[in-house]
Amino acid sequence: MITRRVQYELIARAAGPLLMTINRWQGDLKRAVRRVTGRGPARKAAPFGPPLESTRKLKDLMTMHYLTGRYADGAVPVAWVTSGFPVEILRPSGFFTVYPENHGAVCAVRRMVPELSEAVEKQGYSRDLCAYARCDLGSVVTGKTPAGRLPRPDLLACCTNICQTVLYWYRALAEHFKVPLVLVDTPFVYGEAKPHHLQYVRDQLHELRTVAERVSGNHVAPEELEEILKVSLAGTRLWDACLKTGRTKPSPWTGFDSFIHLAPIVSMRGTEECNAYYRILLDELQDRARRGVPGIANERVRLLWDNLPIWFNLRELATLLAEHGFNFVCTTYTNAWAEAGGLIDPADPEGSATRAYIHVILNRDLPNKLRTMKRMCTEYDVQGAILHSDRSCKPYSIGQIDLKDRLAQELGIKALILEACHADQRAYASEQGEMRIRAFMESFDQATPS
Amino acid sequence: MRRAIIREQQARGRKAVAVLPVHYPKPLLTAMDILAVELWGPPGPPRGPDAGRLQAYVCAVARNALAFLAAGHADVVDGVLFPHTCDSIQGLATLAPDFGGWGKPCFRYIQPKGEERPSSRAFVRAELESLAAELAVLTGKSLETAALRRALELHTEIDRLRAALLDGRARLAMTDRELYGLLRRGEFLWPEDHLQELKAATGRLAAEGSAPVQTDLPIMITGYVPEPMTLFDHLRAAGAYVAADDYAGIGRRVLRVPVGEDDVVSERSERSARPEAPPRPRPVSDPFVALVRQSFEAPPCSTRSANQDRRLEYLVGLYRRSRCAGLVVHVPKFCEPELFDVPAIRARFAAEGVPLLYLEGELEADLSAQAQTRIDAFCEMVAAQRRRGGRAAGGTRGGATGGTRSGATGGEA
Question: pTM to 2 decimals?
Answer without folding.
Answer: 0.92
